[in-house]
Amino acid sequence: MRAMHIHILGICGTFMGSLAILAKQLGHQVSGSDQNVYPPMSTQLEEQGITLHSGYDPAPLLADPDLVVIGNTCSRGNPAVEYVLDRGMAYCSGPQWLAEHVLQDRWVLAVAGTHGKTTTSSMLAWILHCADLKPGYLIGGVPKNFPSSASLGESPFFVIEADEYDSAFFDKRSKFIHYRPRTAILANLEFDHADIFPDLAAIQTQFSHFLKTIPQSGLVLAPAGNANLEQVFQKGIWSQCEYFSVLGADDEDLKAPWRVSVADAGCSAFTISRGRQQADVHWQLSGQHNVRNAVAAVAAAAHAGVPLALGCEALSRFAGVRRRLELLLTARGIRVYDDFAHHPTAIKTTLEGLRAKLRENRDSGRLIAVIEARSNTMKMGYHQQTLAAALDAADRVLWYRNEATRLDLDAIAHASKADFQVFDSVPEILMVLAAEAQAGDHIVIMSNGGFEGLQQQLCQILAA
Question: 17 — phi, psi (to 5°)?
Fold first, then answer.
C-alpha cells in the first residue's frame, strides 16, 4: 500500500483522532482540521507528529491531499466540505476508511451500547494485551494503560469501540455497521442522539442491522434482562449469544452463564464466575456499572481464548481511562475529578459509584457535581424528566447554562434533592468554587467537551 497524504476533517473527535493515529502508524502523512482543538486528543495527536489546524478554513486542503476523511460532525455548508465537493477531491467517512484499510481479515471485537463503550473497550484491549495477544485497538478515549487511544497491533485481534452514531453526512448508517465483528458486546441500550434518531425504535433498528453483520460462528454478549436489547434480539439473532448478570443488582437470570458477586458497596472487589470457574478482581474503580463493564470484557476475552483467571488478574491492574472519573488534583484536602458523563444514566451511575466508595472509606466529604450539558440530546431537552433524580447522590450541583439549551433548569432545580445552582459563565463557576471549596470536598466536573478549560483552570486556582 503506497503512502498517502490523508487530511481528516473533525480530527479532534475521539473516534477521528484515534483513526488519525492508525493512519500515521500505517505510514501515511496525516493532517487534520477541527473547530475545537483541546486536550487530551489534541495533545495525543501532536505527540504523534500530526499537524492540526484550528477551524475549517479550506487553506490546508490547498496541499491537495490524496484523500479527505470527513467526520460526522461536518455537514454541508462547512467551508472545508464545500471545497472538497467543488473540486471533486477523493473523500470517504471514517468508518469506511477503517473497514477498508485496518479491519479487513481481522478478528474484530466490538463494544456497542449507550454507556460504557470506552471503558469496556479499554478493559478488553488491556486483557488481550496482558495475555500477550498483541491486539490492535481503536478506543474513543485515552486508556491509562496504553500510550495512545489506538494501535494497529501485531495479531489478528482488533478491539473497537462500536458507536451507533451516524458515519457521515453522506452515510447515515451507524458507524458499527462497517465493522463486521466476530465478538460483540451489547452493553446496554437507551435512547440517545436525539439529533439523528427520532425515537428508541430507530436506534434498535440500527442494532438489529449490526447483529446481521456478525457471523454464525461469532458471539454476542449482553446483560441479562435488558428489555430494550431483548426487543432487538426478537427481530433476529444468527450468532451464539451469552448473557452476564451482576448478582444482587440485576434480576437473577438462569440463562446468564457469566455472573458477578460484589464483595463491597464501593465495588472495589468482586468475583466473576462461569460455571465452576471463578476468579477475583481487586481494583481502584468504583460503581456497579464498571463491574458490568468488567464481566463483559472478561467474557469477550474468553471468546478470544483468554482464561478467566488471567482476565481477572489483568483487570486488577487496569488503571482506567482519562476523563472517566479521572482524579486530576488533590490539594488542601480537596479532590478534583474529570468525567465524560453526558447522559442521565451515566451521571447517576458515576455519582452513585463515587458516593458508595466514599461511604466504604468512611469519607463524609461533600460531593459537588459541576455539569455542562453539552450533548445535542441534552440541549434538546429530551432528558428533562430524569435529570433531577440522576443528581441525588450529589450534595451540590453547579450547572452551566450553555447556549441553545431547551432544558427547564428551574424545574430541575425545584425537583433536585441536591443544592442546585445555575450559572451562565465559566468564570462565575470558578469564582464560586474558589470561594467555597473546603477540605474533604470531592468536585466532579462532568462534560463531554472541553468545558472552556474549566478543569485546568480550577486545578490551577486550587493548587496556587
Answer: -65, -40
How many Cβ atoms from other residues are within 10 Å of residue 369's Cβ?
Answer: 27
Count other Cβ atoms within 10 Å, centred on residue 181.
28
**Torsion angle, alpha carbons of 69, 74, 79, 80, to 10:** -10
Task: Kindly give the pairing relationship between strand 258-262 and strand 269-274.
Answer: antiparallel
The set of cell numbers assigned to 297 is 470484557
Give the residue among 209, 206, 211 at the shortest CA–CA distance from 239. 211
User: Cα(183)–Cα(127) distance, rounded to whole angstroms?
Assistant: 15
DSSP for 32-62 reads EEES---TTHHHHHHHTT-EEEES--SGGGG
Q: Return the CA Rg of the chain.
A: 22
Please give the grid coordinates belonging to residue 249.
Answer: 443488582
pLDDT (average), residues 246-260? 71
Residue identified by cell 486528543 is: 41
Q: What length is written for the chain?
A: 464
Encoded amino acid at 183, one letter: T
- Sequence-distant (6+) residues with CB within 8 A of 438 are 333, 334, 366
What cell numbers appear for 45 in the block?
495527536
Please state, in angstroms and rounded to a whole number, the distance separating the CA atoms of residues 266 and 258.
Answer: 21
Grid look-up 478488553 returns 124
Per the CB < 8 A criterion, the answer to whether 278 and 271 are in contact is: yes
Q: Nearest-5° angle of CA 25, CA 28, CA 30? A: 95
Half-sphere exposure of 33 (CA within 13 A, CB side): 20
14 contact partners, CB below 8 Å, separation of at least 6: 41, 118, 139, 140, 141, 149
The cell 455519582 sits on which residue? Answer: 351
pLDDT tens per residue, range 395-440 = 999 999 877 777 888 888 788 888 999 999 999 999 999 999 999 9
CB contact at 8 A, 131 and 161: no
Q: What is the DSSP letter of 404?
A: T
Whole-prediction pTM value?
A: 0.85
pLDDT in tens, 47-106: 888 999 999 999 999 999 999 999 999 999 999 999 999 999 999 999 999 999 999 999
Question: Helix or strand or coil: residue 401?
Answer: coil
Instruction: Give me the chain's average pLDDT, please.
Output: 91
- Beta strands 269-274 and 166-168, pairing class: unpaired
Contact call for residues 4 and 66 (beta carbons, < 8 A) = yes
- State how far the Cα of 248 lies from the Cα of 260, in Å rounded to an integer: 9
How far apart CA 242 and CA 255 sit, in angstroms, is: 8
Q: Say which residues have a Cβ less than 8 Å from residue 28's Cβ, sequence separation at least 6.
A: 3, 4, 5, 6
